[in-house]
Amino acid sequence: MSVLIVGSIALDDIKTPLEEKLNLLGGSASYGAIAAANFSPVKLVGIVGDDFPDEHIALMQSRHIDLEGLQRVPGDTFRWSGEYLWDMNTRETRSVALNVFEHFSPTLPESYRATPIVLLANIAPDLQHHVLDQISQPKFVIADTMDLWINIAKDSLIRLLSRVDMLILNDGEARQLTGETSLVRAGAAIRSMGPTFVAIKKGEHGCLLFGKNGDFFSCPAYPLEDIHDPTGAGDTFAGGLAGFLASEAEEGDITFPLLRRAVVKGSVLASFNVEAFSLERLKTVTLEEIASRYAMFQQMSHFEPV
Amino acid sequence: MSVLIVGSIALDDIKTPLEEKLNLLGGSASYGAIAAANFSPVKLVGIVGDDFPDEHIALMQSRHIDLEGLQRVPGDTFRWSGEYLWDMNTRETRSVALNVFEHFSPTLPESYRATPIVLLANIAPDLQHHVLDQISQPKFVIADTMDLWINIAKDSLIRLLSRVDMLILNDGEARQLTGETSLVRAGAAIRSMGPTFVAIKKGEHGCLLFGKNGDFFSCPAYPLEDIHDPTGAGDTFAGGLAGFLASEAEEGDITFPLLRRAVVKGSVLASFNVEAFSLERLKTVTLEEIASRYAMFQQMSHFEPV
What's the average model confidence in pLDDT over B130-140? Predict the structure, then answer.
């Protein structure tokens, strides 16, 4: 089964306490697509300018990502610049230039319209609606979001929630969206707005997954000693999760046990991603490394019954 | 096997955003002893004044806690007053009166000196040393601590680390003690100071356990919707952990798999404790409820291999 991913494709300038790098491949769809492509065929929807380096296109082609839905137009690619403070948890956006992304309103290729798994990666909710409108009877729709959209496009985001099967967001965003300080209450409140499943990411503390009938899963975080660049960790998580679902969902329903495994796969991919700037680590990670770290996640969260 | 617990016994005034209660039973040894007594015989070392209510003594007697090491002297019991802010995570100490605790320097009863499991609950490191000096060949020594002692008694605390098998502290304290922002590095740094095992508590995010040869366990937190009073959660965790170890350690070495289970047992007890003020919930919790919540911890952290 294949997964359709729509989101931003960007050129990033990133500064950490130790390093600064310019003109890096970034954007929610870039991270999501490369992560998902480890597990299943990906159909990408996005836009870049004529300044977008061919090497990034070549990277996506090397992963057999379907680029029929990728527009390359005159103008500059979306640009984002951010800086991480000393603890690598706090991020300040230094500048954003939407450029060709500003008036992006894609018409999906005919061959994309029946894609069963859809990842609406982090972009404006109106654009997520617009893409979802063009897909006929998707099997499972996942939406990612961020604080910016809760601030400036909350109505559209809330309308989106009744159209998706799963929402992914971080702990601060879950509190912001619901007004609940308890993440357990926040997860339940978001489920009551529409999505059957909610994944609340807690950064270095792992991730909580909420489902039907009180289904609950607490996914640990991989104990990394050094984080080189947290950019794209959430996008990589969502892409890995969606790609794994697409690879496994063929045989039946998307169940809570399957989603648990998908959340761990996404966490594994995200843990690799932060080991290097941009997509450098995702470019080299192998299925063997992914399987080995998945086994580590099992080992570190296992304990015997009494 | 029995466990010796030394720590504070206090009368607390506690204010939360919703309620304020006065003259509650508190102190690290009170929480620790009542939690541990679910699993094993407890020998208590502590001091109270002549204002200490008989009902609290009766509670300890009802749990068959050995009170030969409990001094009752003229004067006032140690008093602590604190307030929790709206998120129930931030706590402000409003007042502390050491009272009879100020010059407490216990001589252990003869019957205490061969206790195999020792919990040096949260008190001044010098007092922890003084008690440990009087115990002959303990099988396993656990120390709990807090930011106050890192601030005002760091040298004594660091000397203590080479004398204990396990240190328990929270994430902020681990960072403060080591200067490391990464908890993985902090855990390793503390292990290099002496203790074979380190448990770093992360409040609503669970607990990390570090051991020999890279042994690592990530214990989830129970998804509580409402927290009524976080006071004593850490003391209850330490007591539950130590009591469970004492009940299971008879048969051999204290291994990492045994400690994993003990960390979960401690987390289970702590999750009950915060459901009510003071020790009210610990007074009523049953072994059946503990076993049932332990099974919930297993369920919520389980996922299938791929």
Answer: 97
